[in-house]
Design goal:
Strand order of the largest sheet: 2-3-4-7-6-5
Largest sheet: 6 strands, antiparallel, barrel
Oligomer: single chain
Helix content: under 10%
Shape: globular
Number of domains: 1
Distance between the termini: 34 Å
Strand content: over 45%
Structural class: mainly beta
Mean pLDDT: 88
Order of helices and strands: EEEEEEE
CATH topology: Thrombin, subunit H
CATH class: Mainly Beta
CATH architecture: Beta Barrel
């Protein structure tokens, strides 16, 4: 069986605790929900994370850069799936 990698960027292990805000729009309401998780890998295009928050594809996350105060990161959830009592998700930087 021929397996072809679909990812554009090489991933590397990256384990860091992360506090993030989920930006949600429901009907005409705009909500901000804070949560936390653990990164598991990174690439030039995004992050893989594990969190207790039930992330869904399309959610937008933002968080502060831990190394450069005042820098804000944003990403969209490309995919999410249950992983035991948590959720594993792939984030794409925007």
């Amino acid at each position: 069986m021929d397996f072809q990698e679909k990812r554009k960027h090489l991933r590397e292990n990256y384990t860091v605790a992360i506090d993030f805000t989920v930006l949600l729009t429901q009907s005409s309401e705009y909500k901000r929900i804070t949560s936390s998780g653990q990164t598991i890998d990174k690439s030039a295009g995004g992050l893989g994370i594990i969190t207790d928050f039930p992330l869904e594809a399309g959610h937008v996350l933002q968080w502060d850069d831990q190394h450069k105060r005042g820098n804000l990161h944003m990403a969209v959830v490309k995919w999410a799936q249950p992983a035991g009592n948590s959720y594993r998700a792939g984030l794409f930087f925007i």
